[in-house]
Amino acid sequence: MLTLTAISVDRLLALLLSLRYRQAVTLRQVRLLVVSFWLSSFAFLYRDLSIGIMYINMLLCIGTSTFCYIKIILHLTIIKRKFKNQTEEELQWT
To answer: For labelling, which of 23, 37, 49, 76 has a CA lying 20 to 30 Å from the CA of 16?
Structure first.
């Protein structure tokens, strides 16, 4: 679940940042994220804590992924409209 959420956040950042993506998302940040995923998985070793943490984790992951994909869809819709309007204007001039 954490991996899918990380992928959706990564896609959103790549879309919104475009050329600045490589500067904003560094290898060091990705490594820290992976280590934090590993450390958070150790919380599941304790049975009493694991059920509560699992539900909170699932809700946060689902919420974050949903937010990211809604933003991606809205952003792509805006880009599509701009492109369509631009091509229509170019066709009128020819």
So the answer is: 37
Global pTM reads 0.76
Spacing of C-alpha 19 from chain mean position: 17
79 neighbors 22 (Cβ within 8 angstroms)? no
Q: Which residue has the tokens 């949903």?
A: 66
Return the closest-CA partner of residue 2 out of 28, 26, 50, 38.
Answer: 38
Angle ∠(25,38,59) on CA atoms, nearest 5: 80
Decide if 76 contacts 18 (C-beta within 8 A): no
Residue 64: other Cβ atoms inside 10 A: 17
